[in-house]
Design a protein that fits this description.
By secondary structure, this protein is of the alpha/beta class. Helix content is 39%, strand content 15%. A hairpin with a 2-residue loop joins strand 11 and strand 12. The longest helix is centred in the C-terminal third of the chain and has 25 residues. It starts with 23 loop residues before the first strand and ends in a 6-residue tail after the last helix. GO terms for molecular function: transferase activity. This is Putative glycosyltransferase. Keywords: Transferase.
Length: 389
């Protein structure tokens, strides 16, 4: 029987730690999250041992905040996955999971978005819930969603302090998955889109939700923030070659709601918020400060993410892609046909695959051949005026 939505019972736990100490790592894919990023890292480091973060070409203060956090603590690591295309969250998070497990032994690996905070009274409670995940099952967090309201004091830069309106949470629901050590041995283990479930051989793994530890999800921190988020995700998801209408429907609905806005300036009651929160009982939101907050900001002056700067940054990335497309057309001899451009792309991809294979080889002959292939690729691109002489 589904348990009712309820507020989080945060009575302190005074029992001794019953579970053995676990090594826990998180993976995050972030983009233009400067307003919440420092708070996100400082809070969650009280519950995980290391945070691996991929910066997805941010245009705000996100890279600087990450640089400072990495300099301050070895528990924060920035991963470079080289991705420059559409938004493929599941593929990139899965690749990161496999990479970090290969280099270090973890008991739990969990994905966290930059607006998600582990909501527990202490780490012992968190580990006790993790230790209770049945064998062969994935773990999961329920969601406790926080929402910006019209009475928020926007002079407070820190959204973990400013945003107080929260919906209850259903302790039996599944919001975000996590992978226990036993499942990490499965070479086919993968996250689905949104990281809501784990898949083994393409089939969803049975899931056990942590009963006492949800994720506090600061999904809507201001109307400007959610408007820009919907626009960026609209571009990212819609540009995927495999996009279908069932991908992130709320984000797309939010972007569609912006079409009907008569002005750039949005009111706190703009239609984008109910469109993005379809299925949530917004009228049930209650005042609940995030009292589980851990850590304080050292650089509040960086916790800004101007909306227009982010939109212009998105335009710059789209312009770069269009310029690359023009370069391919030029390389194909000015022929605009899809076949001509496809031939250039296929040649480049074939050479890159060969170089990747040879780079991984320890053979002296292979390394020499790799250099020869590299020279061949350089000459091929130079003939097409894609690289400078």
């Amino acid at each position: 029987m589904t348990q009712p939505v309820r507020a989080l019972d945060m009575a302190p736990c005074h029992s001794p730690r019953s579970a053995p100490f676990m090594r826990i790592a998180s993976i995050s894919l972030v983009k233009d999250e400067a307003d919440i990023l420092e708070g996100f890292v400082r809070h969650n480091l009280h519950f995980v041992d290391r945070m691996y973060i991929i910066d997805d070409r941010s245009t705000d203060n996100t890279p600087e905040i990450l640089r400072r956090l990495c300099a301050e603590s070895d528990a924060v690591r920035v991963l470079e996955d080289g991705w420059t295309g559409a938004f493929h969250q599941a593929r990139r998070t899965t690749a990161a999971m496999r990479l970090i497990q290969k280099h270090e032994d973890w008991d739990i690996i969990l994905p966290l978005d930059a607006d998600e905070m582990i909501c527990a009274s202490d780490r012992a409670v968190f580990e006790e819930d993790l230790a209770a995940i049945p064998a062969g099952m994935a773990g999961a967090f329920a969601e406790m969603r926080y929402l910006a309201g019209p009475n928020d004091d926007m002079a407070i830069a820190d959204p973990l302090t400013r945003v107080r309106q929260s919906l209850g949470y259903n302790p039996a629901s599944v919001f975000k998955s996590l992978a226990p050590k036993a499942l990490l041995k499965d070479a086919t283990l993968a996250f689905d889109e949104g990281n809501h479930s784990l898949l083994s051989h393409g089939v969803r793994v049975p899931t056990h939700t942590l009963p006492r530890v949800p994720l506090a999800h600061f999904a809507i921190r201001s109307v400007d923030q959610i408007a820009v988020k919907c626009m960026k995700h609209y571009v990212g998801w819609r540009s995927r070659e495999d996009y279908t209408a069932n991908f992130v429907p709320t984000l797309v609905a939010g972007a569609q709601a912006l079409r009907d806005e008569p002005r750039f300036a949005l009111s706190p009651s703009a239609a984008i918020i109910p469109a993005y929160c379809a299925g949530y009982a917004l009228e049930a939101a209650a005042d609940r400060p995030f009292t589980e907050r851990r850590g304080t900001l050292k650089w509040p002056e960086l916790a800004v993410s101007p909306p227009y700067a982010q939109v212009i940054g998105l335009f710059d990335q789209l312009i770069a892609r269009a310029a690359a497309g023009d370069a391919l057309v030029k390389a194909a001899g000015g022929d605009m046909s899809a076949d001509a451009v496809a031939r250039v792309i296929a040649e480049r991809n074939a050479l890159q695959l060969e170089m990747d294979r040879l780079t991984a080889s320890t053979s002296k002959l292979a390394r020499a051949y790799w250099k020869a292939v590299g020279r061949r690729l350089f000459r091929s691109l130079r003939k097409r005026n894609l690289v400078k002489r």
